Amino acid sequence: MIAPTIERDVSAIVQEAIEKHGAKRDALIPILSEINHALGYIPAEAFQEVRKQLNAEQEHVYVSKSQLFGLASFYDMLSTNPRGRHVIKFCENAPCHVVGGKAVWDSLCEALDLNNGETSADKKWTLVTTSCLGLCSVSPVVLIDDDLYGNVNPDQIDEILERYE
Amino acid sequence: MAFYRSHVLVCVDPECLAKGAHEVVDALQDEFIAQGLNDEIQVLETSRIGGCDNGPEMMVYPEGVHYVGMTPDDIPYLVEEHFLKGRVVERFREIIKPIVDEELGALRPKEVRVVLRNCGQIDPNNIEDYLATDGYQALGRVLFEMTPEGVIDEVLKSGLRGRGGAGFPAAKKWAITREVPDNPKYMICNADEGDPGAFMNRRVLEGDPHSVIEGMLIGGYAVGASYGYIYCRAEYPVAVETLNIAITQAREFGFLGKNILGTHFSFDLEVRVGAGAFVCGEETALIASIMGMRGEPHPRPPFPSVKGVWDKPSNNNNVETYSNVPQIIMNGAAWYAKMGTEKSKGTKTFAVGGNVVKPGLIEVPMGITLREIIFDVAGGIKEGRKFKAVQTGGPMGGCLTEQHLDLPLDYEALSKAGSMMGSGGLVVMDEASCMVDIARFFMDFTQAESCGKCTPCRVGTRRILELLQKICDGKGEDGDLEKLEDLCFEVSRNSLCGLGQGAPVPVISTLRNFRAEYEAHIYEKRCPAKVCKQLISMAIQPSCTGCMVCARNCPVEAIRGERRQVHHIDENTCIRCGICVQVCNFNAIAVES
After folding, report:
1. How far does CA B473 lie from the centroid of its chain?
2. Sheet holding B387-392: strands in order across?
């Protein structure tokens, strides 16, 4: 993730995303994903900006702000709330569950003092569960930003978390 | 171009990344800079190298030394020994075997690999590797020697059925799409493999992407389509990257684009990436998502074959289905139809997970029994425990028991037993699993993934979940099971798409096969498998030595006792986390139900 704490020009990010994926109705999901990746979440002004820029560029591709918000609220990977500097995704699915995933999750919640979907007061961490990452042969699996940790056991949590600033 | 005396290739596939491959790369680079070797030695990131279960792994050329299992802390020593002193560090050395995939491993007994034949055997990022294994020859044969009808006929004769789970004959779907008098037509590949525990398609996309592309091309020729979409879930970043590389190379070699191999057939492809929505694996939802909308399903008919992407006829098959096609063309329908049962032909990939000795990816001929899969191919149940149940077909599949183990595996037999083939996830459970908890667990999943468009699924799944939670919490009452059965019936009958229709299956099948366990929860307030926290208690046995380890580790200070005296757990304070059971060195803490 590109440091979401640094104020970046939302309009420039939106423009970049549209240039990369094209000013098309069917490019909306990639465009929003790109913005989400750059900023860590999609702020309200980004919806406004996407609408403005898309409609200016392609008059026949009219999108409304509510359509954009509808997309962002539907897909799990798009967030409309600010997230912490590091997003911890925990795989909570059956293969991880039956090999001790619950204990890892409890230990994560305890170490961070967070519940599912919450962001810490210092904006360092966001803790969420994720859909199956398909890495079941090394389960339980934790994904922090883009770093994958496999075969995790509860005792390793503190050590893993210490790696992040 | 810079000249390096040595190259270090570090494997950065998802498994090795999960074991810290990036940290090893960073440590290597830092150490080479520190030693002033960074102009002489190049560090490269690569895909799977060899057959080790002990990643991270790296290969040093030109010596061809294969190192595994090192941590960043080992790197300074390794660099000093190997690169400064020229001595091989035997401690980390792995004698390289023929390339074998880590997730797949060597061919197991009773396995037959058709779809997975190239996975781990070829470099997925190099089209020439695929060409060397007869890649794109089937496409050539189809374009030069066969009519579209002939292709459909051949695939029909092979008996290939949809591997996404429903089992609709692939060639029949192609024929329907072909006959719709509307153009253009589209090919869609469903690579939104969302079923927890299923990762067969990921491996095919990461290990042999061209087989999928070739299958789509052949299908496209048969159907009369000129464009295709591969819809891949965003949770598979490596698969997306591999596919994009493969598509670019296929274009360069003239297998995609205008006038393929000099014929009149033109076809191109693009990858569409999801953004995290399980329901997008449902074909109408997937199409909505390709068009940039919320991935909500709509009622069928019209089926996508008639009205799909951009309201045009769109043929939708899954990764495994397409991947079978080139081989059917190359080896003939009769070869394929020889494998399997009367109505289910060929092979099927499964991701076996849960409490088995050797979990992982397997490919077996249809008609094999669950017993053979669990005990012969996957090595049996872990730690010598007893088999209890196996869930087939993902979160909407049923839990089968001992009595179903000898069923021949095919589409019909599984649905008759109250489950389904599904995409091929197999979660094996031993006697320590509580079936009410498992049913609750799957319901929790489908409830969260329900898109909310239709009421039976949106509200019904939540009500079922609440009932299950109530039973797990020990608050179940007489009549709850009947209420559950009614709800399950209504939700599966009235929901709009496969998600809602299938959601109650784990509950229905566990109610049918493990009813006594539900009844124990409700009437005896007891969890026989000792899983449900509200129904169990911890008790310290007389064999306690009074070492105090449990008392020190208890997060709520519920354990009291003097040193060298038998300790005691205060039931009211205890949260039943089980930490004391884990830390006790004398097995003196019993879980009671």
Report:
1. 31
2. B360-365, B347-354, B425-430, B387-392, B399-400
| Selected residue with higher pLDDT from B97 and A74 | A74
Q: Are residues B424 and B458 in the same domain?
A: no
Which amino acid, residue A56? Answer: A
- A-B Cβ pairs (cutoff 8 Å, strict): 131
The torsion of the CA quartet B333, B335, B338, B339, rounded to 10 degrees, works out to -100
Residue B564 Cα distances to B414, B542, B545, B549, B589, angstroms: 56, 12, 6, 11, 15
- Residue-level pLDDT at A8: 60
Calpha distance B25→B140 (Å, rounded) = 42
| Residue A27 token pair | 């490019």
Structural domain tally of chain B? 5
B263/chain A closest Cα distance in angstroms: 31
Give yes or no: residues B401 and B482 share one domain.
no
pLDDT tens column, B435-446 = 999 999 899 989
Across the range A125-129, mean pLDDT stands at: 93
Find the DSSP H helices in chain A.
10-21, 28-39, 44-57, 65-74, 94-96, 102-112, 157-162
| pLDDT band, very low/low/confident/very high, at B103 (cuts 50, 70, 90) | low
**Confidence grade of residue B514 (pLDDT, cut at 50, 70, 90):** very high
Give the nearest partner residue to A132 out of B15, B194, B438, using CB atoms: B194
Q: What is the pLDDT of residues B204-232, one digit of tens each?
A: 999 999 999 999 999 999 999 999 999 99
DSSP three-state, residue A99: helix
Global pTM reads 0.81
Q: How far B392 CA sits from the closest chain A CA (Å)?
A: 12
- Nearest Cα residue to B109 out of B351, B425, B372, B339: B372
As a whole number of angstroms, the distance between CA B449 and CA B443 comes to 10
Domain hosting residue B39, numbered range: 6-92
Query: Maximum distance among all alpha carbons in chain A?
Result: 56
B354 within a domain of the structure (yes/no): yes
Kind plus residue range of the DSSP H or E element containing B191: strand B186-191
Q: Which ranges in A75-142 belong to alpha helices (H)? A: 94-96, 102-112
Residues B559, B516 within the same domain: no
Q: What is the CATH number of the domain that holds B223?
A: 3.40.50.11540
How many other C-beta atoms lie within 10 A of the C-beta of residue B123?
A: 15
Instruction: Report the DSSP pairing between strands A86-91 and A125-130.
Output: parallel
Distance CA(A8)–CA(B107), nearest Å, equals 52
Q: What is the ipTM of this complex?
A: 0.88
Residue B305: inside a domain = yes
Let me know whether B411 and B296 are in one domain: no
Residues of B in contact with A78 (CB under 8 A): 275-276
Q: In chain A, which residues have their Cβ closer than 8 Å to the Cβ of B291?
A: 25-26
pLDDT at residue B9, as a whole number: 85
Give whole-number Cα distances, B412 to B338, B365, B421, in Å: 18, 15, 9
Q: Are residues B235 and B382 in the same domain?
A: no
B234 shares its domain with B179:
yes
Q: Inform me whether the pLDDT recorded for B538 exceeds 80.
A: yes
Of A19-23, A65-69, A82-86, B176-180, highest mean pLDDT: B176-180
Cβ-count burial of A148 within 10 angstroms (0-12 exposed, 13-18 middle, 19+ buried)? Answer: buried
Query: How far, CA to CA in Å, does A147 sit from each of A82, A144, B164?
Result: 20, 5, 30
Residues of B (415-434) whose Cβ lies below 8 Å from A:
427, 429, 433
Q: From CA A131, how far away is CA A44, in angstroms rounded?
A: 26
| Domains of chain A in sequence order | 10-74 (no CATH), 86-162 (3.40.30.10)
Residue B255 within any structural domain of the chain = yes
How many C-alpha atoms does A5 have within 13 Å on its Cβ side? 8
**Residue B99 falls inside a structural domain:** no
Judge: A93–B289 Cβ closer than 8 Å, yes or no: no
